[in-house]
Here is the input.
Amino acid sequence: NASAPFAFTVLAPDSVLGAIIGDLPSQGGVQSIAITPDGERAYAANVRTNTVQVLDLTRGTTITNIIVGVQPAMIAILPSGLRAYVVNRGGDDVSVVDTDPDSPTYHTELKRIRVGKQPVALGIARDGSFVAVACKGDGNVFVIDSQPGSPAHDRVTKSATVAVGSQAIAVSADGTRIFIGTPAGVSVLDL
Here is the structure.
């Protein structure tokens, strides 16, 4: 039994996304970029200079460069916009960067948190309560408490071994599962 036909139009794909409207200053070597929730600043992890370059998106200028760990591979900002976390592939750690304009330590690295070998990816819980880190070198996944005021704030609270070569990580919307991209597929961790 055939269903009733319906009208549709096939359109040719638009091959042009849009024109480049400008370039922001960079030193080359940018591995990852995160934008603050208000859209005013971008933070670019630069693997060549071991820095996070802070860009003013309104003016198109560099605000500062923040020294972080060795070979920063990825950066993400908490939903509050108050902190950024940077995985440092060559240092086996995660830098915590103050991104709160009202803080006296604004645009400084606050600390480094040791994790496994070659951290390459991180995911942040939607509510900002934790950061999940995937380590390519040893296959470990780490959960860092990112709740200010918590006794475990900015410390590893959980870890698990998944698969060597893990390169991607995501947190479920409800924060109860972590998905890890491995050479064999996708592994799922229950929190």
Summary: The first strand starts at residue 30 and ends at 35.
